[in-house]
Amino acid sequence: MSDKFELTEEEWRERLTPEQYHVLREQGTERPFINEYDELFDPGTYSCAACGQELFESETKFNSGCGWPAFYAAKAEDRVKLTSDHSHGMVRTEVTCARCDSHLGHVFDDAPSTPTGQRYCINSVSLKFSPKEEG
């Protein structure tokens, strides 16, 4: 894991779009099915939109039908932090970037067709995709 990346709330607001700020810093959720990466399956790497830390590889991305990008594993276990989330009257596991503590989405144990059985349901707006270089 990289060194911690910390900014003031004012610096976060300057760095992020209003939608990114809402999701990444206020634990919001973007609308399903009409986001940038739900249906993108090109080879590459997905990084945190807030701090740039690499989080997920395209090889672990799958079409879960949930309306958000889904991955069955993080790039490395120390890249994301998992915490219990009791908001909205349910118990879920929140996924945050371990480097900057930005909210990414949630992980569920409901993906029987994946090697891990997990579905990291991640907001597109919290990610930046970098295509794999050919060669």
From TrEMBL:
Top EC category: oxidoreductase
UniProt EC number: 1.8.4.12
A GO CC annotation given for this chain: cytoplasm
Domain MsrB: 9-132
A GO MF label: zinc ion binding
GO biological process assignments: protein repair; response to oxidative stress
Cofactor note: Binds 1 zinc ion per subunit. The zinc ion is important for the structural integrity of the protein.
Protein's name according to its UniProt entry: Peptide methionine sulfoxide reductase MsrB
